[in-house]
Amino acid sequence: MGRVSQAQAQDNRRRVVETSSRLFREEGTHVSVADLMKAAGLTHGGFYKQFASKEALIDEATTHAFAELAQHHKDGLDRYAGQRDAAQRALIDTYLSAEHRDGAADGCPAAALATDMARDGGDSEARRVYTRGVGDFADFLATEDQDGITRLCTMLGALVLSRATKGSPLSEEILTTAREALRGPSSSRGKNNAKPCGCL
Length: 200
Prior knowledge:
Blueprint: H1 6-27, H2 33-39, H3 47-50, H4 54-79, H5 84-95, H6 98-102, H7 109-112, H8 114-119, H9 125-141, H10 148-164, H11 169-183, H12 185-188
């Protein structure tokens, strides 16, 4: 079999990073290299031609996930013509929805990777990217009246707990209660099944 072209090699690497970013958010960073490569449609043997180690892939996949998050925030601002409060309200509805609860693979890396990052030694690029990404997310959520870190903790905590209690009435109640706390009862009713707006 001939050698893979440089363009194909770059495409394969991108595919591995994107696939790993989704799988790490859905299942955690303990997913094996063999399973990651299989999910990307590539052979296990090609991994070390692309990455120095699994840790290097975790670094890149985490960077990719937070780049997606930052782009969603930018898209949200663009969609609402720079009206930050409207973009924030749409984000809250999307973030605290059943769709986001059930779709970890395409969801928030701050919530999905929290446990893995907590177990990290603290000196990895992934941990630095995660920390910076959480700070940027909190900045996006800040208003004149509300602290961004408090809002982020409410959202992230509610999402994690709703996933852990999925299948019970409590899961839905957690999402609704957190949404009402952040937006107010009148603006949150009936939003539990909000369709993703692309600004998550």
